[in-house]
Amino acid sequence: MKTVTFRKYIIEVLKNAIYEKGESSNVIVAEAPDLPGCFTQGKNYEEARENLIDAIELWVTVGLKKR
Length: 67
Prior knowledge:
The chain has a single domain, classed as Double Stranded RNA Binding Domain (2-Layer Sandwich).
């Protein structure tokens, strides 16, 4: 089994991230399709990406706490 750091895991998840312009508001929606229900938004691409990193960290942390 290969050991992967939390940071490397986030980088791998971000490789599959999807960024789309919001339908009803002027935002960028960011989604991590590898993590069901993990999505967020931001005023621009950079903010949406930073918010997605936070969302990924929270998604994983909650998952670990449920174990």
